[in-house]
Amino acid sequence: MAAASVALAAGCTAQAAGSGGGTGSPTGAPATSASAPTDAPTEDGKPPSPSDSAATPTDAPTETPSGTPSGTPSGSAGAKALMGDGDENEQVRELQARLRQLKHFDRAPTGFYGTMTAGSVKEFQQKQGLPLTGSVDEETWQRLLGASRKPTADELKPSTTNELDTPDARCMTGRVLCISKESRTLAWMIDGKVVSSMDVRFGSENTPTREGIFTVERKVRQDWSRLYHTPMPLSMYFSRGQAVHYSSDFAARGYNGASHGCVNVRDRAKLTTLFDQVKVGDKVVVHW
To answer: Chain centroid to CA 260: how far?
Structure first.
């Protein structure tokens, strides 16, 4: 019994997506399983160089030139593009944030104008009855300004790549780590207000992350998995061997991997701040 207790105390770390890993599933994990999430696009980024893209897989599709050079006519007579393919500046970031408000852009603003941004602009232009150029002329920009509001600082540079969903009702009172499997985010909430948030990933189908209401049982700043022999920094245990902790594998490979049941965080700086704020006994809600 003592040996089993030690194993459960530090029991999960990363594994490749789709790998078995069933022998390391924490005792008591429910029979129901959740498939490891597939990778989701994270940004409207610059196209990688051939050497970079061959060497390092990315979490999200990258942008390629949209075929409409910046400064070329927008499709309306005499109209000049204010923003177009290849541009990179804060006005493009604002454009993306405003398009995101209107559900035409589904990722974090980057300030770089590529094919994803061009496609979002075309969607907006179609809705407004404008020529579908994919570049932003004065008419398109003024229509967008009228249809959206000035972006907040968090909208321009979101705290998470994944967009937070509506908090679970169980997260609206007290001090709560509100963890959503649907949006793949962790929101640190106090009395219904989001204090900070970060991207997370979960266990594979063979080692699922448990769902429900828990409490932070203990905190270990520098821990080590005795089941999988890997580091588990900034661990906050909430259900026997399952914990919220930093994962260098998540930071490196994104959603191409999964944990053995723990809630992985890839932003170490954010998690360090959170670790210092969370107290033993604080609520943890893991939900869809």
So the answer is: 19
